[in-house]
């Protein structure tokens, strides 16, 4: 069990959120799954352990985690949102063929944000950088 999960749960408790076994499982799954799962993915993975859990439960809990600032919703071209429990500064590389998303870290783009603020007068509160291409397995299939 990663210490990240424990830390996240401690954080939630301080905001007065009750940690149910389902919440614990959803958060743990999200933090360990590096593939930015959809709510359906999470539901399917946890259903055997929690037969009473519905997709709606998963969504409601994800919403609650997002409000607590612990989970980010990634909405890309396709209809289904993916969820990311890594809220540190990182960016995404997305495969145009299979839709796989991978994280990569890069020094903060704070200078880009400052430049944007000066040029536009906006107050920048966050950014999302996406790079598009073809993942290794899709490229191998093409040969």
Report a brief summary of the structure.
This protein has helices at residues 3-14, 21-32, 39-46, 55-67, 110-120, 136-142; strands at 72-74, 82-84, 91-95, 101-104, 130-133.
Write up what this structure looks like.
This protein is an alpha+beta fold. It contains six helices and five strands; from the N terminus they run ααααββββαβα. Strand 1 and strand 2 form a beta hairpin.
Topology summary:
Layout: H1 3-14, H2 21-32, H3 39-46, H4 55-67, E1 72-74, E2 82-84, E3 91-95, E4 101-104, H5 110-120, E5 130-133, H6 136-142
Parallel strand pairs: 3-5
Antiparallel strand pairs: 1-2, 3-4
- Tell the overall outline: globular
Helix proportion range: 40-55%
Order of helices and strands: HHHHEEEEHEH
Output the strand order for the largest sheet: 4-3-5
Residue windows where pLDDT falls under 50 for at least 5 positions: none
Share of β-strand residues: 5-15%
Distance between the termini: 40 Å
Structural class: alpha+beta
Biggest beta sheet summary: 3 strands, mixed
Rg, please?
Answer: 17 Å
How many distinct helices?
A: 6
* Beta strands, count: 5
Overall pLDDT score: 85
């Amino acid at each position: 069990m990663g210490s990240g999960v424990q830390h996240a749960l401690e954080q939630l408790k301080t905001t007065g959120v009750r940690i149910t076994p389902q919440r614990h499982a959803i958060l743990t799954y999200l933090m360990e799954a590096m593939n930015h799962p959809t709510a359906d993915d999470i539901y399917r993975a946890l259903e055997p352990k929690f037969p009473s859990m519905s997709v709606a439960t998963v969504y409601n809990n994800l919403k609650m985690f997002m409000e607590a600032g612990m989970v980010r919703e990634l909405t890309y071209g396709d209809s289904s949102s993916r969820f990311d429990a890594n809220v540190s500064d990182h960016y995404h590389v997305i495969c145009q063929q299979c839709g796989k998303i991978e994280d990569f870290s890069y020094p903060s783009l704070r200078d880009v944000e400052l430049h944007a603020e000066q040029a536009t007068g906006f107050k920048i509160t966050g950014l999302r950088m996406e790079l598009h291409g073809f993942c290794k397995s899709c490229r191998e299939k093409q040969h």
